[in-house]
Design brief:
heterodimer, A: 344 residues, ten-stranded mixed beta sheet, 15 helices, B: mainly alpha
């Protein structure tokens, strides 16, 4: 048995060495990123940053949960300097696992308002998304809509479309409601929503909107930028669907519309923390923020930058004023509530 | 990992156990049962018909049957989701014909069963066809002489004899189903893997996740054990090189029609429709997709596939040979362990491998400095990924190899040794040629599987290392299915080519398997 083990290891080593060439061109200045944002536009921004500063940007793209696990397992040995996720809750988790260090750049703090940063600047938002109610314009009047909480009213029975509970955007929405209304009411809300669902949750946000237009339901809960993406889709049918959809920002007279962010934090054992801070300055700066807003239909976090014309056309809205850290703190409670409410 | 089992039960565990476990286990069993039944029966039917009856172009037809394997189930899921969706392709066709659109809810349990069955069935075909092809004519002759019809011969004689092989192929299918997370998540069908991911990432509770993974392994162990029991009582089939292979019969009219309808329906659903849909989507997205670094993408994908395949085959041969010669407890234990490993969710494997190599790196730090290497040399390199993939796909490759070893036993080896050949020489000159068919299918399965592999590659890859599959993920994960389809087509193209090449090589050797 031992012999076999040794042979296997030797073979693997040989095989591996063959595969390891051509790696590791050590550039003089680099910043290494783990990111959960996979857009081509992000890569274009990194390229631009490299061009401006000469700092090379190396990227691993995967789901944020998996990347946090990888970061945690690597410990001190990690090569990663910056962790980017598309959800505040995940940043909080990374922070709670003691994987982040405060952002030192004052420029980042100037660029991003306080609510969109962690209180000790362990992480900062890069872009903002609103999770809104969309409705079929031919059947529903926006006057019938008011709040997330009102979605549990009996008049919406069998009318509601929403994706599965394993989705982080739903978890964060519920986490915010736990913070605003308390755990018991949040539980009742989830149960009420399940009561009103038009079908068992399936598909992604785009699928909810397609089902909405086809008449399977009257309302759906989706993120704003998916509407933007469908309006600009290469598939003419998707555009057709998106054009029949109205966007409603809920809770305008009460607690504000739920927003989530994609954001970034410098890792605790970053070997190039300065470069990472520099990249954050760039990404929260006016140029990059405008690109985010225009290319990806997200809201900029830098107040000096205006949202794109499309986003402006949906109107201004007031947002939840919660500290975003709450989304992370309440995440596991939210998951449990979803389970108990049988929101699949 | 085992240590985690003895930790006190957490509050989360109580929550999982009481609220979600029963539901998820039930879903898992339904999914496994249905997919297993469909793939085993239809797969056996197709493979039996093609090996035993003359339908013209049998070889070509057989090669085409393997093509659905080139399409990963998660891509297949997106495709069928897109076809049957509201405002999906089917509805558009109906609308353009002026008919009222019908809606089939593809994103459901039955949809998941359909998609998994379609794209995983080639495993059963691949494993059974070699066995069927090599069945000696004497069995049929005896059965027919004793008054059995062909139909009876199949059900009374052949089926009981081949149940082990069919079970072997089906187990591969079921392992793939258990492993999947992407498709069941998109379809909204919560199964066991959902529970593990939800415990780990949703509740942030590694202990509970590991506990769940252990239960899963327990289930898999029972399945494997049953498979082994099924296989044990089978009369051994002689693998004599000179055994008279049966000539293919002319099919009856009834069989001809039923075979061709099943065959073409299957090819349509498993290859034509998905490829056509992906082509249509890619055409739409052609203006938006930036084909950045395409050569390196394909290069990376092939490199990974080749290296891992070589690793798996070498290790598989060594272990298989050891198990055959020693046939002791450790050999059997290890061979089961390999397959069990395949049922552990990828992220858990990934973290285990990472932790291991972080420690190795630490202990090797002195050596690194001496060699002038950077500190996290192994952790930050492709080696990590190759190691993890090799570990994982040992199950697939080894399953095929061990079937080959079982077939030849050690008689020939012993004979060669008695005649004075060295151990190495006996293996190389006597066993190896007989093992070739098994090695071929092991290579094929492993290579195509690694091309499609997602979770491990995603988590463990070094910086700036992209493969075709990770590109598909980055687009599809963002609901950009049109853009993803360009890369999905490339995966299908590359694995399709691999399948056809291997098939062509084998055809030259005039043998199946």
């Amino acid at each position: 048995m031992k012999k076999i083990g040794i042979t296997i290891i030797v073979i693997l080593l040989i095989v591996a060495l063959a595969g390891c060439q051509a790696q590791d061109k050590e550039a003089s200045a680099v910043v290494n990123i783990y990111t959960d944002r996979h857009y081509d536009t992000d890569q274009a921004l990194y390229d631009q940053f490299t061009e401006e500063t000469g700092i090379q940007v190396n990227v691993v793209k995967a789901g944020s949960d998996e990347l946090i696990e990888r970061l945690a397992s690597e410990g001190e040995a990690t090569e990663v300097d910056l962790m980017i996720t598309s959800d505040a809750g995940r940043l909080v988790r990374a922070q709670n696992k003691n994987l982040l260090q405060p952002i030192t750049s004052n420029k980042v703090k100037e660029n991003v308002p306080e609510q969109l940063r962690e209180k000790d600047s362990n992480w900062t938002a890069l872009t903002m998304r609103a999770r809104v109610i969309v409705y079929a314009r031919d059947r529903i009047s926006p006057d019938d809509l008011s709040t997330y909480e009102a979605l549990t009213e009996p008049k919406w029975k069998g009318k509601l479309l929403v994706r599965s509970a394993s989705n982080i955007y739903n978890q964060s929405l519920l986490a915010s409601l736990i913070a605003l209304n308390g755990e018991r009411q949040a539980q009742e809300w989830a149960e009420g929503l399940v009561e009103n669902m038009a079908r068992t949750p399936e598909g992604n946000d785009r699928d909810q909107m397609k089902a909405l237009v086809a008449g399977e339901g009257d309302l759906a809960i989706v993120n704003t930028y998916y509407v933007g993406k469908m309006l600009n889709s290469s598939d003419p049918y998707e555009v057709e669907v998106a054009e029949q959809i109205g966007i409603f920002f809920p809770n305008q007279k009460t607690t504000g519309t739920h927003i989530n962010i994609s954001g970034a934090g410098v890792t605790r054992f970053a070997k190039h923390a300065d470069a990472a801070n520099q990249l954050l300055e760039f990404l929260t700066g006016e140029g990059a923020q405008a690109d985010y807003a225009n290319a990806n239909y997200e809201y900029p976090v830098n107040p000096k930058v205006a949202a794109s014309d499309l986003l402006d056309s949906w109107g201004e809205f007031s947002r939840q004023e919660l500290s975003l850290s709450v989304l992370g703190e309440n995440n596991s409670t939210a998951v449990k509530i979803f389970n108990t409410a049988n929101w699949q | 990992m085992l240590a985690g089992l003895f930790q006190p039960v957490s509050e989360n565990w109580e929550h999982i156990r009481t609220i979600v476990l029963e539901r998820y286990v039930k879903n898992t069993l339904v999914l496994l049962g249905a997919v297993g039944l469909v793939t085993a029966s239809v797969g056996t039917f197709l493979s039996w018909s093609l090996t035993q009856y003359d339908f013209k172009w049998n070889q070509v037809k057989m090669s085409l049957l393997l093509l659905p394997l080139a399409i990963p189930p998660y891509i297949g899921g997106y495709v069928y989701g897109g076809i049957f969706n509201y405002s999906g392709t089917l509805e558009r066709i109906f609308r353009s014909l002026g008919w009222a659109p019908i809606h089939i809810d593809m994103l459901s349990m039955s949809g998941a069963i359909f998609v998994f069955s379609i794209f995983l069935m080639p495993y059963v075909i691949l494993v059974t066809r070699g066995f069927f092809y090599r069945l000696p004519a004497s069995y049929f002759e005896s059965a027919r002489l004793l008054g059995h019809s062909r139909f009876q011969t199949f059900f009374r004689v052949i089926l009981p004899m081949s149940r082990g092989v069919i079970a072997g192929g089906t187990v591969l299918v079921l392992l793939e189903v258990l492993n999947d997370y992407g498709l069941v998540r998109y379809f909204g069908v919560p199964v066991f893997s959902t529970a593990i991911y939800s415990a780990w990432f949703g509740l942030g509770d590694v202990q509970s996740a590991i506990r769940l993974a252990m239960i899963l392994m327990g289930i898999v162990f029972v399945v494997l054990f049953t498979e082994q029991k099924l296989t044990q009582s089978i009369p051994t089939v002689p693998a004599k090189a000179d055994a008279r292979i049966r000539r293919r019969n002319k099919p009856s009219k009834w069989l001809w029609w039923s075979f061709h309808s099943v065959y073409f329906l299957y090819l349509g659903a498993g290859v034509l429709i998905p490829v056509a849909q992906l082509l249509a989507w890619s055409k739409m997205a052609s203006k938006q997709v930036i084909m950045r670094g395409l050569p390196s993408l394909i290069g990376n994908t092939l490199k990974l596939g080749l290296i891992v395949t070589v690793g798996v085959i070498l290790c598989g041969l060594i272990i298989g040979n050891y198990q055959r010669l020693k046939n002791n407890f450790w050999g059997r234990f290890y061979s089961k362990l390999v397959v069990l490993g395949y049922s552990i969710p990828a992220p858990i494997i990934a973290v285990a491998v990472l932790l291991f190599f972080v420690q190795v790196d630490q202990s090797l730090q002195g050596t690194y400095q001496w060699l002038g290497l950077k500190n996290a040399f192994l952790t930050g390199s492709l080696f990590l990924l190759i190691f993890a993939l090799t570990l994982r796909y040992m199950a697939i490759g080894y399953n095929s190899l061990s079937a080959g070893f079982n077939r030849i036993g050690r008689r020939y080896y012993d004979a060669a040794r008695t005649l004075g050949a060295s151990g190495w020489r006996s293996f190389w000159h006597v066993d190896f040629p007989m093992l070739k068919p098994a090695i071929f299918s092991a290579i094929l399965l492993t290579f195509v599987d690694v091309l499609k592999e997602l979770p491990l590659t995603l988590i463990l890859r070094p910086f700036n290392f992209d493969t075709l599959a990770t590109r598909v993920f980055t687009y599809a994960g963002d609901e950009m299915i049109h853009e993803a389809s360009v890369y999905a087509l490339l995966i299908i193209g590359v694995s399709g080519l691999a399948l056809i090449t291997m098939q062509a090589i084998q055809k030259r050797r005039k043998s199946y398997d």
